[in-house]
């Protein structure tokens, strides 16, 4: 990212670059997590509908017979296994999102504290405002307040 129009130290630029990288990584993980949740949910709905249609055949009141209908086919077992794998991937992505969000929020809080430090205030408040506006506009990163 080009910070040539901002009068900032190398440390400030490095902090901002790291913040932008973590935000992009968090957004990418969030997109993957949402896609996995949607695919997993749709797959679950298909499985439930399929099982309902297969087990509620007219005249089929025996539970063991219904269980055999469900597990008797290799395609049914593959469908169940794929859903379990999708569920595990979704849980993993949720854990990754939580971990990366905590890291991003910690760095964002550090950046806010760094921008509010007395030595940078004496330089220029307008530079901080310029950096904050640019980050908000380009990457939707708030470095003005600690709470969203």
Assembly type = single chain
Order of helices and strands: HHHHH
Radius of gyration: 25 Å
Residue share in β-strands: under 5%
Shape: rod-shaped
Main beta sheet: strand number and arrangement?
none
Content-based structural category: mainly alpha
Number of helices: 5
Stretches where pLDDT is under 50 for at least 5 consecutive residues are none
In whole angstroms, the N-to-C terminal distance is 24 Å
Helical content (DSSP H or I, runs of 4+): over 70%
Mean pLDDT, nearest integer?
81
Compute the number of strand runs.
0
Overview of the structural elements:
The chain is mainly alpha-helical and 148 residues long. The protein is built from 5 helices and no strands. The longest helix has 46 residues, at 10-55.
Please give a handful of descriptors for the protein shown:
rod-shaped
Fold blueprint:
Blueprint: H1 10-55, H2 63-71, H3 74-115, H4 118-123, H5 125-139
In short:
The protein is an all-alpha fold and about 150 residues long. The protein contains five helices and no strands. Helices cover about 80% and strands about 0% of the residues.
